[in-house]
Structure prediction request, 600 residues.
Amino acid sequence: MNEFALIDTISDVLGDAAIAPWISVGIGDDAAVMRPRAGFEQVASIDTLVADVHFPKHAPANLVGYRALMVSLSDLAAMAAVPRYALIALTLPDSSDVFGEHWLRQLAAGMAAAGRATNTALCGGNLSRGPLSISVSVHGEVETGQATLRSTAAAGERLYVTGALGSAAACLRRQQLLPAQEDALNDLQRAYYQPAARFDCRPEILAATSAIDISDGLVQDLSHVLKASGCGADLYARSIPLGVGAELTDALYGGDDYQILFTSGRAANAGLCIGELSSVTGIRLDGKEIQLNGYQHFAT
Amino acid sequence: MNEFALIDTISDVLGDAAIAPWISVGIGDDAAVMRPRAGFEQVASIDTLVADVHFPKHAPANLVGYRALMVSLSDLAAMAAVPRYALIALTLPDSSDVFGEHWLRQLAAGMAAAGRATNTALCGGNLSRGPLSISVSVHGEVETGQATLRSTAAAGERLYVTGALGSAAACLRRQQLLPAQEDALNDLQRAYYQPAARFDCRPEILAATSAIDISDGLVQDLSHVLKASGCGADLYARSIPLGVGAELTDALYGGDDYQILFTSGRAANAGLCIGELSSVTGIRLDGKEIQLNGYQHFAT
Prediction:
C-alpha cells in the first residue's frame, strides 16, 4: 500500500473526527484551512513522541494514538485554550508487518477517540518513512489577551493541581507499560495511556495567575513557573494528592499524568491546594529544600 | 547540556526570527499565542524530514535547517497563503558530538534565515531524544474563502509552473548532496538546499483555479490535481522549463524543486505554460500516455 492509499485509509478511520464546523478545508490538500473565532487568539504547540523513548513501540496502537493526542493537547489546556484542531506527522518504519495497515487503523482510531473527546478536528497530517515517531501540532483559541502564562505567578499565591499525581510514573516504575489486553487496563495503565487533557478545568485555568501542565514531574514543571515568575515555593507533602499505586516520589518527579499545576490568589474550586509561593527562591517540601531530579530528556 | 539549556541556545540563535508583531506569546511557555488577522482564515500544514530519507544526515546543518523550513512553507505558498509562523519539533540522537550544540546552532541559524526571508516567526517547538528528524508545522493566512485548492481545476484551462524544474533531482542523480563547502554550493546544490517557497507568486496563485507545490515530481503532483478535479492533462515536452543540469526525466519525476504547479483560464504573468487540462483522463506528453513513477515514499 503506497503513501496515498495509507492516507485514504487513515482518513476513512477518522471519519467525522477529521472535520468540524470551523474547518473549511480538511485532509487532502496542501494544507488545511480554518476559520478563527472573532475576539480570540490562536494558541499552538507541537510535541514529538518517539517509540521506545516516549511510549513502548509494541504497545497497542490505539492506546499510543489516544495518548499522543491527549499529551499534546494538554499544553493547550494549560494555556486556558479551547482546542480546535491538530495536525499529525507520522513516521513509520519501512516494510514492516507490525506497523502496517492494521496498526495504522488502530492508531488512527485511538487518535479519533481523543479528538472526539476534546472536540479537536484531526484535519491534516503527513506520512513519512523512518524510525517510528509521532509529531502532533495542536491548535486552540483563547479570548484575546487571556492566555494563562508561566511567568505571571507571584509570592503569596497558592499552588494548586487539578488532580492526583504519580500513577503514570508508578506504571513505569512497576514495568506495567505493556498491557495484556488493550481493553482491560489496570488503574496504573489507564493513568499512563488515557490521560485527559484538563479542558474541563478551563474556568479555573483562565482565572489562574499562572499555569503549566505536569509532563516532566511536579518539581521540574513547578521550577519552570518559579524561574519564569521569579519566586520560590513551599510544598506540603500531606497535601499532594497521590494517585492509585503512587508513592510521593512518583508524584514529585514522575510526570506523565498531565494534570495542570496552577497558581491563584483565591480558593480554586477545581484545584487541590498543595502549597504556596514564596519570595524566597527554591522549592521546599515541608520546609526542607529539595532538588530538581525529574525526568530530563537531555540530562547527561 | 540539558534540554532546557539547548532550548535557550536555540532561542538565542533565532533572535528576532522568533518574534513578529502578530505573536503575543513566543518561545518559553506551554504554547505560543498569535493574533489572527480579521477577514482571513488560518492555513496549516505539517511535514517531517527524516535524516537519510529526506536529507543527508551529514549535510551542513544550516542548509538542512533552511531547506526544512522552506519545503514546509511551500505548502502554504501553494494555497495562496501569507506565512505567519512555524513550530519546529526536533528529534536529536543521544549523546552525539556531531549533533551537539554547534550543529544545533547551525541548524537554528539556517531556519532563522528561511524565517526572515519569508517573514515567518519561529515562535515555538519541541526537543526530543531519538533518531534525527525535523517536523515543522507551518501556519499562514489567506483571505476568507480564497485559498487555492487542488480540486477546482477544469478541462480547457492551461497548466503553469512558477519556474524551472529538475535541478534538485539532478543534484541527487549526480550524487552531489554533500557539498564540499557549505558557502560554495554549485547550481544543483543550490536548487536542492535553497528552494524558495514561492510566496512572490501569490497574486497568480490567488487568481489560479487550482494549485499544488511540486515536491514529489511534476507528474506525481499533477496527478493529485487531476484526481481531485476529475480531468486529464496534455503536457508539451518543449514547454517544460528545465533547470540547470536537469534532463526531462528529472523535471517530470524528480520533485524537490518546490515550484508551484497551477491552472488558470487566462494567461498568468508569473507562470510558464506547460500544457493544458483535458476532459480525457490520464496524462499525455506530446500526445503519448505517460505513467506515474515519481517519488513515492511508500511504494512497494
